[in-house]
TrEMBL record:
This is Diaminobutyrate--2-oxoglutarate transaminase. GO terms for molecular function: diaminobutyrate-2-oxoglutarate transaminase activity; diaminobutyrate-pyruvate transaminase activity; pyridoxal phosphate binding. GO terms for biological process: ectoine biosynthetic process. Its cofactor is pyridoxal 5'-phosphate. Keywords: Aminotransferase, Pyridoxal phosphate, Transferase. Belongs to the class-III pyridoxal-phosphate-dependent aminotransferase family.
Amino acid sequence: MNEQIQGSNHLQVFDDLESEVRSYCRSFPTKFQRASGYQLWDVEGRPYIDFFAGAGALNYGHNPPEMKKTLIEYLLKDGISHSLDMATEAKEHFLSKFNEVILKPRGLNYKVMFPGPTGTNAVESALKLARKVTGRQTVMSFTNAFHGMTLGSLAVTGNKFKRRGAGVPLNHAVSMPYDGYMGNEVNTLDYIESFLNDSGSGISLPAAVIVETLQGEGGINVASNEWLIGLADLCKRYDMLLIVDDVQMGCGRTGHFFSFERCGIVPDIVCMSKSIGGYGLPMAITLMKPELDLWEPGEHNGTFRGNNLAFITAAGALDYWKNSQFQLEIEANAELIRSVLAGIVLSLPDLNGELRGLGMMQGIAFQSGIAERISAIAFERGLILETSGTDSEVIKIMPPLTIQRAGLELGLRILTGCIYDAAVENKSFAEAK
Ligand SMILES: *Cc1c(COP(=O)(O)O)cnc(C)c1O
């Protein structure tokens, strides 16, 4: 009754009851009801094309039918739902399949750890393990890095606003310039090595280096293959562990299952979450080289490390990786995105847009501060599109990897219109001034 009086799409309950900390619902102010594939619908039946994909947790789209079917069957037969970290059939199935489909064909030999089911927990466990194994305290991280919201992860995160939220000093970390941070002419690895080499630099030898191969939250900054290979080499030469945070770029986002496959490096530790559960269900894994697995039983514990519903869908998601077909589809989609974005940048020279990204994680950086306006117009036109970067200066195009061609084309057409209209607004505003 109340709902009818207020209008079914009212957001009053959230304003009244939910903490001010809520964020995405402010950029996309409607009440969502259902979703399928690359689309969502709100309570008024309005469709939206999803170019955000749960920040990378929905690489396989919303409610993928095969995984849904397997999950429902598992629920109906009273399969284990929660199991702490006890051995279950569902976990066994995931582990074996992950080894067969992902690790073995890539010649990778990792032990799999299940931390709490979030990205930041995978990162915390990686940092702990690196410190334990090396007996050193400092971890090197990079400018504009994002690794999560808990204290250890925040200490290796760049963003000032997020860091300030900690309320305590964030220590035992040292931030160094990411690839390209000092301009195209400077190889930041040389700069970093000069610190490691110099006993007067004020930096003690780090336990590990934690890196994203492509910084998603930090502005869609891509590290070059050469730089990543050089970084892996630097880690070897100075006996530092290399941790790749693949929480957002893993599971195919940049074209391969692991984002580091493009340059052939083999990290010592890999953090995964977001899409690893396949269905948007909470799950995380930390991969480590077997010789690093020096954990004592229970040393990094957690109640929800046995989310068996996620193990079921995570195993289902691995079917996408049984052959190279999916990878080819991602590549084709990536090319379409790239060509449309390049066309936009070329036809609007006044905006000075800069193409960013790789695979199905691409975007345009704008100097003029219109990225947030573009996102707002896009929402009005039924397209969910986020911004990224310290000043939200980059529009971020990250649809589900499984998006159909027609959906991708339509979304890109809407996006193009939004950018043109935001550019016109921007121009008339500048002229009025
Ligand atoms: C999202 C993200 C995290 C944190 O994951 P949560 O599940 O939000 O804790 C860590 N690292 C990267 C690169 C991420 O994108």
